[in-house]
């Protein structure tokens, strides 16, 4: 069972997007945190927003659980903030966010994924997910994107932006909205001010996302002196 369970890193330096980390056997934990000379975790990130001992994932009676280790900036499961030190069960495809999206992970049970694919093929019900335009598909709840049936692995910020624009499809989204939703880690605690993100940083992120989407990059429209829009015909 364990050999079919993985954590896929979607974003988090110094790891490459798509890196897979197998879960440990029952009785052992897979720990996540910030690397330092005095602290060692199984999966170590370099961001200062990640706590030294941030979260752990483990198997118990064949069920996978995640637990936030009282981290400073929190752990979220499918955008729901976890209570510190309270285990939460994981399901295949769940998205894990450390420190408000600085690190993004996906829990994968490959046996479950194979079963889901078989059921989807034989079922008369439409597959889960929404078509953005011909050849480009997204499952926002799982942050999964594919082009012409081939999975597209994007970094956390690129996925954040595409999913956010998708949820506001055919609506102009202001630069300030983008700053708030894509860079929440730059918000000052207790302040309602817009994060300190320059428009050039937004433009660069949009430019890179368009390039990664290839022929479908043109669906992201610039709204002059305002922001951007995902245009779906």
TrEMBL record:
PANTHER family reported in the protein's UniProt record: NUCLEAR INHIBITOR OF PROTEIN PHOSPHATASE-1
DNA-binding region: 127-232
Annotated Pfam families: FHA, Trans_reg_C
PROSITE patterns per the UniProt record, alphabetical: FHA_DOMAIN, OMPR_PHOB
InterPro entries for the chain: Cell_Proc_Reg/RNA_Proc, FHA_dom, OmpR/PhoB-type_DNA-bd, Sig_transdc_resp-reg_C-effctor, SMAD_FHA_dom_sf, WH-like_DNA-bd_sf
Domain FHA per the UniProt entry, residue ranges: 30-82
Organism this protein belongs to: Fictibacillus barbaricus
Top-rank taxon: Bacteria
Domain OmpR/PhoB-type: 127-232
UniProt keyword annotations, A-Z: DNA-binding, Transcription, Transcription regulation
Protein known as: FHA domain-containing protein
Keyword RNA-binding in annotation: no
Record has Disulfide bond as a keyword: no
